[in-house]
Write a structure and sequence with these properties.
Blueprint (H helix, E strand, L loop, with lengths): L4 E5 L7 H9 L4 E5 L3 H9 L10 E4 L2 E4 L1 H11 L7 H23 L5 H26 L13 H16 L8 H11 L2 H6 L12
Parallel strand pairs: 1-2
Antiparallel strand pairs: 1-3, 3-4
Length: 207
Amino acid sequence: MAGKVVLHYFNGRGKMESIRWLLTAAEVEFDEVNMTSRDQFKKLLDDGALMFEQVPLVEIDGMHLIQTKAILKYIAEKYNLNGKDIKERAMVNMYSEGLLDLMEMVMMSIFTPPEDLKAKLETIETKAIGRYLPVFEKALCGPVFLVGGQLSVADVQLMECSLMLEEKFPGVLAKFPNIKSFQGRMSRRPAIERFLQPGSKRKPAQP
């Protein structure tokens, strides 16, 4: 029997947070090793665990998985969160890629020089409202889930992304009632409800 899933990353959201969300939605228990020293990183390198010498790293099913998208796809496939057939998987992947692009914009904004931050955030908010959110608002006009009438990785990432946007831009979903309703439905799923509570393995927002 395979051991518990183990995540190796820094003690923050970063690229690992989407993996935490997906494991939570799949109701998979996991442990975390928070990397706080160069020695920990060097040991992973010396052990040959990091194919491209970078984290996130996830130990699962006897494997050392790296590369965020590869990890997410493995988990989604393993736990039936990636659509029922090839056409549904294509839709799930398109939604997922778009959400990852948007979340990366938000994550990388912390590296913006202070004098440029206001303009950078305004650009991100404009793109979110004009380019990304309308896609999901339209997709949720009737259906409970984005693809195929069942939960997928894209739904989990939309929940994560929409909450991330509200942290940065309060009121950003004011004109997107379908997404707000979707948030409410997702937050009532027991595993996600627990994940949203203080003291869970969800990491705090970036400053």
